[in-house]
């Protein structure tokens, strides 16, 4: 995280995937999904609310009920002006959930189908962090970050190699066009030798493992990763918030994880 139409895959689909350096085809099997069909809140055996923290992305996170909703089979995460919590000095409040210590993802394809409503200072994100290592050693995989009213989304890789050592090669990020007025499909594939990113099933870029004497270039084959879905506001990257644009919502229809099964 910087401070820092829908094309469905059928259930138990068998897809042939190719990736630089991958010498085999793989079978992808739907092994986990979340459709947000609950009426009285998200499934707490899978998801927790993200607590407040000091980084830009986390400074307005709140458990306040008005930042969350379940509507028409979708999880709604909001960014709002804080007019309701006099004991909370935060100007704004945002909602976010993660699977930390509850659900971990390894090799496979993770997809999120969502609509990102715009606002000045809005910074919604879907991303993965290591279950077992501190940041940035365990790596970070940004599946989607969108700023303000943009018609593009950012997809980025962070690690000790990219952040602490400031290495610039191989390419560590790209953008892809989205429909800002509709739902879009955001995806990443975690392979033993690469990460491959997609928006609406169009490949945006791949981050490969390379041979290097520098540490931490590809930690992504060593850990399970937890998923964060959060509606963020403001910060050094996205800029200031316009309160007149709030509340702003992110609507998440579903999340699906297709595990890889090697097929020589």
Integer average pLDDT? 91
Give helix % range. under 10%
Largest sheet: 9 strands, antiparallel
What's the number of extended β-strand segments? 16
Number of domains: 1
Q: What's the alpha carbon Rg, rounded to whole Å?
A: 18 Å
Shape: globular
Distance between the termini: 36 Å
CATH fold category name? Jelly Rolls
Order of helices and strands: EEEEEEEEEEHEEEEEE
Strand content: 35-45%
CATH class: Mainly Beta
What is the count of helical runs?
Answer: 1
CATH architecture: Sandwich
**Class of secondary structure makeup:** mainly beta
Low-confidence stretches: 4-24
How would you characterize the overall build of this protein?
The chain has 264 residues and is mainly beta. The protein has a single domain (25-263), classed as Jelly Rolls, CATH 2.60.120. Helices cover 2% and strands 43% of the residues. It is built from one helix and 16 strands. It has one helix at 160-163, and strands spanning 25-34, 48-49, 68-71, 74-81, 92-94, 96-98, 108-116, 122-130, 140-145, 152-158, 173-177, 183-191, 194-199, 202-208, 225-233, 248-263. Strands 1, 3, 4, 5, 7, 12, 13, 14 and 16 form a nine-stranded antiparallel beta sheet that branches. It has a seven-stranded antiparallel beta sheet with strand order 2-6-15-8-9-10-11. Strand 12 and strand 13 (194-199) form a beta hairpin. It starts with 24 loop residues before the first strand and ends with a strand. The relative contact order is 0.26. The model is unreliable at 4-24 (pLDDT under 50).
């Amino acid at each position: 995280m910087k401070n820092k139409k829908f094309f469905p895959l059928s259930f138990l689909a068998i897809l042939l995937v190719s990736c630089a350096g991958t010498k085999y085809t793989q079978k992808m099997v739907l092994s986990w999904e979340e459709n947000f069909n609950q009426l009285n809140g998200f499934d707490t055996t899978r998801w927790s609310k993200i607590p407040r923290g000091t980084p830009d992305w986390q400074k307005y996170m709140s458990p306040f009920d008005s930042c969350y909703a379940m509507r028409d089979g979708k999880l709604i995460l909001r960014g709002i002006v804080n007019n309701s919590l006099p004991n909370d000095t935060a100007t704004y409040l945002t909602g976010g959930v993660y699977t930390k210590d509850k659900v971990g993802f390894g090799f496979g394809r993770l997809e999120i189908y969502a609509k990102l409503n715009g606002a000045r200072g809005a910074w919604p994100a879907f991303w993965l962090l290591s279950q077992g290592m501190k940041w940035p050693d365990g790596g970070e995989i940004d599946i989607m970050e969108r700023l303000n009213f943009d018609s593009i989304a950012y997809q980025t890789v962070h690690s000790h190699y990219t952040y602490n050592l400031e290495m610039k090669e191989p390419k560590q990020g790209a953008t892809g066009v989205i429909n800002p007025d509709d739902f879009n499909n955001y995806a990443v594939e975690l392979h033993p030798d690469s990460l491959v990113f997609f928006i609406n099933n169009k490949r945006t870029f791949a981050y490969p493992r390379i041979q290097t004497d520098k540490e931490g270039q590809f930690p992504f084959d060593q850990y399970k990763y937890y998923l964060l879905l959060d509606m963020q506001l403001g910060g050094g990257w996205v800029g200031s918030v316009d309160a007149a644009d709030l509340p702003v919502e992110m609507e998440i229809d579903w999340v699906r994880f297709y595990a890889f099964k090697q097929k020589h």
